[in-house]
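Repro case for the chain-ordering regression, as requested:
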Amino acid sequence: MIAAAGFFADYGLEMLRSTREHMVLTVAAMLVACAIAIPLGVTLARCRSRFLANVVMGLVNVIQPIPSLALVALTVVVFYLINEFLGVRVLATLGMAPALVALVAYAVLPILRNTYTGIRQVDPTVVEVATGMGMTPRQILFVVQLPLALPFIMAGVRIATVWTIGVATLVSLVGAGGLGDLIFRGLSTYRINLILAGAAPAAALALVFDWLLGRLEKWLTPRGMQQTPSP
Amino acid sequence: MIRFENISKQYADGTVAVKNLCLEVQAGETLVLLGTSGSGKTTTMRMVNRLIKPTAGRIEIDGRDITEQDPIALRRRIGYAIQHIGLFPHMTVAENVAVVPKLLEWPRHRIGDRIDELLTMVGLEPGEFRKRLPAHLSGGQKQRIGVARALAADPPIVLMDEPFGALDPITREQLQNEFLDLESVINKTIIFVTHDVFEAVKMGDRVALLDAGGLQQLATPHDLVENPANEFVDQFLGQHRFQLALLTGTVRSIVPEPPPSEPQPAAPAGQGISVRSSLIEALDLFKRTGLDVLGVHDRGAPVGRLSKTALLEAITDVFRRAGSPA
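-- result from build under test --
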């Protein structure tokens, strides 16, 4: 008890502050990533020509395997190069800006891929019938395609969120704060309590977000797609 | 009335799906487009609700060129049912049936009444089925919902692409019969696509036989079977000709028209047969009842008598004609 009380007295405030930073980073990155990836995925899936989709999906598949730490570092490099090229320092190479860009780039991937797959897996017969019955393209999207793609999209969002919480521990290295601050400080000074003060909330955040999104997914998923079909 | 005027469809890769098709579908009739896969029958049907755009020619509905109408509004006035049904898996039976009425912004209570009416019409108890999901329906039930959905907004025209194609033979025949009964009540102009010649002669008032995008023959089922227009039609009917002739030959063709003035003897109650019944049905009725003579009626009015001997003679005659070329 006393040990626990001492722990929170030592790190409590910092833990709260870093957790809040971590959540802000994650939520901001996820909102931007969804705002980019879902419309883009829908557009690509509904685009008549497969060419554009193949190009974008190919690009996505190139970024995907880059280790997250390397991606964070590369963002700094890219920002630096842009500044050099322009001859003016337009971009802050450290802090929130490169951190958010790296997080978004990483989170866009699973959402985009799942949105694309989700829309494409909708039975073409169903879309044909919807067209034949006189639905407008907009109605087909909102009444038929999106509800049927929703489980896929939500799965992408869940994966991306859990990843982002993980990658967000690394952006402390470029000075963006978050729980990584505690972890890296603890590691470099070898203070186990400090490491724990960063790592435990990060793990808890991932679990809680995953659970919450799971609930949201269940709540949003149309009833007809929850039960296992029976003959 | 639907009019196809010199309709052709050539795809970008050069395939000609339909060429120079001229066709008129009368109001209230069921026209069957019959043909093998690749004959252009489905393409022809899908041009009516503008899912496919013809490369040449024009299609008129009640004298108006369909390309001058808004495709969305046009489609909402045309019922559409297909083999793969395409029920929306995330919607209940009621929601599926209600799609077009909702698009047309019918008031809520009217949609509710219509759902119950339609489910009853296709033989499904509304209380039991309204809230079910497509995943919890049998193949036959799904198909019934597909038909109900196509009829939902009471469209004057209905397009049906092998609507009973994916069913087992027994369910299929049951649904065909139910649909024939239904059709006599609802009186729609129907374009019905099938590759099954038996289904074609059963469902159609007239049959258009297509091959490689061209119309080979347009005739009543009886005429198609009795007077094939060319070699292709003859071969298409092939070894089924005898069966088809029995199915399409009606009692009317073997019972002489009575002189209009002379009153006919009343048939024994419940033992009559309609002039519109097929020879097969007449044969079945003789077998079932064990009678030697049946009263013949036309819409309930007695018109004559048919003896078993006369029927058997007619059947032998059909056999002789159908068997000879083979």
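Ordering looks correct now. The CA atoms of residues 118 and 152 of chain A lie 5 Å apart.
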